[in-house]
Each structure stands twice: as C-alpha cells, then as structure tokens.
Amino acid sequence: MKRSVLTCLLSAATIWAYGQEKPIDSSYANSHYLQRLELFKQMPNQKNEIVFLGNSITEQGEWQELFPGKPIVNRGIGGDNTFGLFARLDEVLASKPAKIFLLIGVNDLGRNLPQAVTLNNYRRIVGKIKKESPKTQLYIQSILPLNEEILKYPYMKGKNPQVLALNEKLVELAKEFNVPFVNVFSVFADDKNELKSEVTLDGIHLRQAAYLQWANYLKSNNYL
C-alpha cells in the first residue's frame, strides 16, 4: 500500500490518456484523503465486514446506526474519485469483506474526466475485487442526481445528463461482471430526474435523515 500512496502523490501531476487533447487530472491525495486512509489502516478488521465504499456521499452516512448489529464499516472519503478509490482498495480487501456497496463517480464528472476513463477505472476496481476477494458480494450503486436550482458548486452545474449517461453504462457494467446494480437514483430523483429538494441542502449531498430512505431501500430489496 505504501507504493499506492507514493503513486497518488506523484499523480498530482496530470496524465495523458485515451487520445484526449487535454490532460486527465488523476490526482486525489489531498490531506483529507491521506488522513482517512491512515485511520482506515489502523482500524482492526472485522469478520464478515460490510463495507460502504465511496466519496463524501458515503462518508456522511451513519451506516452503523442505520443497520444496527451488523459489522458495517464506512470507507467513504469526501472528494474521492475513481483513481483514488482504486488506489486504496488493498486496505478494503484486507478483511475479505462479505459485502461491498460501491458508489463513486460524481467527482469524476466534476473534474470533467471523460466517461471512458471513469468506466475503465470502474473495470479495474471491479476486476480487482473479484480477483483478490472472490467471495465478496459486490453491489454497484447508481450515481445520485443533482438539484440544479439548489446546487452550490458551480463546477457541478449541468452535470445531470452525464449522471444519467454514466448510470446507463454502470447498468451494463454490472451485467458484464454479473453483480447487482442498486438503483439508489430512483429513491432520490424527482419527476425531472433531479435530486429532490427536500433531501438536500446543497444540491448534491443528502440530509442526514434522507439516509433512512436509502437504508430502507436496501432492506426492502434484501441487499442488507
């Protein structure tokens, strides 16, 4: 894992990929990322861990309280992208978790990363999980919609069509790897396919109480 951290530090510089004329920003190793990763490495592994893995939307969920009595661990890091998540998979897979609920990609959209880059990273993530922890049940969760009217982050404006397009590709990816696709988008989207105004304060993140709807959706579909 030390090699992965070194790699992430070096990746603050941009990389060229996929024939793009503009450089791809693959950086992710900010101070929050490194501090969270340091904490994760020092936490003891549990038997049959259930991992919620992703960015700030995952990090802000009180998963242990939403599913009392289950060996839940929160492996969300605010601001993370598909490059950063792949780089820290070794820590996640060390426990050989029973289940992983994966949600990542909205920060890729915020950085204007080409969809092909994000999907390639997804394939790397899913492939590594299946290879190194084949008994782990992986769930690919949909990217959540945004609320344009409330949205407080200018760089995320106009991204909802890309959210829809990426989710369509994730459905295909889930079928390709024979893993369940969890359509959390449907829980929080209004009739315009935007994030319901009552579940968010900033147009992208969820109110704490909204996570109850998420948990109930997972329970009602027997994912947990």
From TrEMBL:
It comes from Solitalea canadensis (strain ATCC 29591 / DSM 3403 / JCM 21819 / LMG 8368 / NBRC 15130 / NCIMB 12057 / USAM 9D) (Flexibacter canadensis). Transmembrane segments: none annotated. One of its GO terms (molecular function) is phosphatidylcholine lysophospholipase activity. This is Lysophospholipase L1-like esterase. Signal peptide: none annotated. Residues 52-211 form the SGNH hydrolase-type esterase domain. Pfam families: Lipase_GDSL_2 (PF13472).
